[in-house]
Design brief:
- The chain is mainly alpha-helical.
- The protein folds into 2 domains: about 15-75, Arc Repressor Mutant, subunit A, CATH 1.10.10.10; about 80-115.
- It contains 5 helices and 2 strands.
- It has helices at about 15-25, 40-45, 50-60, 80-100, 105-115; strands at about 65-70, 75.
- A two-stranded antiparallel ribbon has the order 1-2.
- Helix 1 packs across helix 3 (about 50-60) and helix 2 (about 40-45) crosses helix 3.
- The chain is elongated.
Length: about 120
């Protein structure tokens, strides 16, 4: 993720951060499921107040560009996450069937893996 904030710009820093992230998502540079840096880390990297980055993230969430998953962090939202999950599930099913594993046993393996 590449972000640059121009302190001499007339555009507030939170808007610069918001639009830079939104632009990278729209361009496909940040794909669904990509985990954004924690607010404090990005704020330190950009030499901004944490509240500035938090506001940008909050506005991106309101726009549906990102989603916050509690302590897990903030992630790029989108249908691509669900598609990737379906593809991974399909690959798992194919591998399980190749191994001769039945559906019940394959599901139990998933439950164990999810812990």
């Amino acid at each position: 993720m590449r972000l640059v904030v121009d302190p001499s710009s007339g555009v507030p820093p939170y808007e610069q951060v918001r639009e830079a992230i939104r632009g990278q998502v729209d361009a496909g540079d940040l794909e669904p499921g990509f985990r954004l840096p924690p607010v404090r880390s990005l704020a330190a990297e950009l030499d901004l107040a944490a509240n500035t980055v938090a506001r940008a993230y909050k506005e991106l969430e309101a726009l549906g560009v990102v989603e916050t998953r509690g302590r897990a962090g903030t992630f790029v939202a989108g249908a691509g996450v669900e598609r990737s999950l379906r593809e991974a599930a399909s690959s798992y099913v194919t591998a399980a069937r190749t191994l001769g594993v039945g559906d019940a046993e394959a599901l139990e393996a998933v439950r164990r893996a999810l812990g």
